[in-house]
Specification:
Length: about 375
């Protein structure tokens, strides 16, 4: 009995060993790969697009600068405020130069003395004219000289007021000390504060910017395009603009400007482009928003296409594997002619027919 059990145990061990060997052998055998098959799509539309990055900016952003130098005494606006053309933005206190101030005071003193002299002459001439000792012509000349002396004194005092205060006594509202907006629009920035010194714009410097104002109803997309693609763009070419900060906000546009000169950015030549932002409501947009513009560079309609993943590229040649036996799943390597690609699908212009089945991805 013991011998029987012992033999049975050895037989069982042998069977387990054989079963393990057979299992490992069968699993070690290489299985024939199985592939999915795909057919060409006819009547497809393939487009080659590029994505341009840029910003939303007002078409015209005006820097408001003073017409005189001085110190900001008052500021009447702040960023985000709407202004009209002619609205007062700030007031400047003039710091007069000593030479100009001294000259203006001297001119007033001379005009006052001249007026006193003409008054005395006019009185004497008037008395003599009453007594018929002088002619009417001399009398009228003395009165004219008196009026001219009064005008000169008023002009001298006005000049002193302009030099000292920057304000004309005859036209206070038109004074250069009042900085006014030159356009109707939104105040984007006020880079100065009360007490800041400002310089007028002249041939030697650009002057101090008091505020930046722009018409936010006329916005443009300003972006960059690589030199390899700029030749495929043209004025009037349509594009679609999307604003990253605003969901579901997009705008159809057309290119209206392509820079004729490249800019070198980190070794890459790029060209500036501009396009108008056409939205029914631009109130949600802000200057400086990041935006993307999608431009269709080339388009092919009604063509035969296949997934680009099934095409094998060797140098300038392209090949696909055409199914020849569905049961054994054998394929024939065949050269094809390709056209436009959108990165996912590629146009096939020759080498296969619409009824062919092509080798696709390996089945898992």
């Amino acid at each position: 009995m013991k011998k029987f059990l012992k033999r049975a145990l050895w037989v069982l061990i042998g069977l387990l060993f054989v079963a393990t060997f057979v299992y490992l052998f069968l699993n070690s055998r290489q299985k024939e790969p199985e592939y999915e098959t795909v057919g060409p799509e006819t009547g497809a539309v393939i487009t080659k697009s590029t994505l341009l990055t840029g910003t939303i900016e007002p078409r015209d952003e005006i820097a408001i600068k003073p017409q005189i130098s001085g110190i900001i005494s008052e500021i009447y606006v702040e960023a985000g405020q709407q202004v009209k053309e002619g609205d007062i933005i700030a007031k400047i206190k003039v710091i007069a130069e000593e030479n100009q101030l001294s000259s203006a005071h001297s001119r007033v003193s001379i005009a006052e003395n001249a007026l006193e002299l003409q008054k005395a002459k006019a009185r004497r001439t008037a008395e003599l004219y009453k007594k018929k000792f002088v002619s009417r012509e001399e009398y009228e000349e003395s009165q004219s000289a008196l009026r001219n002396a009064e005008i000169e004194l008023a002009s001298a005092r006005d000049a002193l007021s302009i030099v000292r205060d920057g304000v004309s006594s005859t036209n206070a509202q038109g004074s250069n000390t009042l900085v006014r907006s030159t356009i109707t629009g939104l105040v984007l920035d006020v880079p100065v504060k009360v007490g800041s010194s400002v310089i007028q714009s002249n041939t030697f410097n650009d002057g101090t910017t008091i505020a930046k104002v722009a018409d936010m109803t006329d916005l443009i997309f300003k972006g960059k395009v690589d030199e390899t693609e700029v030749g495929l763009l043209s004025i009037g070419q349509p594009m679609t603009i999307t604003v990253g900060a605003l969901e579901d906000v997009s705008s159809d546009a057309a290119i209206e400007y392509i820079s004729p000169k490249a800019e070198n950015n980190n070794g890459t030549n790029t060209f500036e482009i501009k396009a108008a932002v056409r939205l029914p409501d631009v109130s949600a947009l802000r200057a400086g928003y990041s935006a993307n513009a999608s431009v269709v560079l080339r388009r092919a309609d009604g063509v035969m296409s296949v997934p680009e993943a099934v095409v094998e590229f060797v140098g300038d040649d392209a090949f696909v594997y055409v199914l020849t036996d569905a049961d054994k799943q054998t394929f024939e390597r065949r050269q094809v002619e390709t056209g436009l690609s959108d990165g996912v699908n590629i146009e096939i212009t020759g080498g296969i027919t619409a009824s062919d089945k092509l080798r696709g991805a390996l089945k898992q």
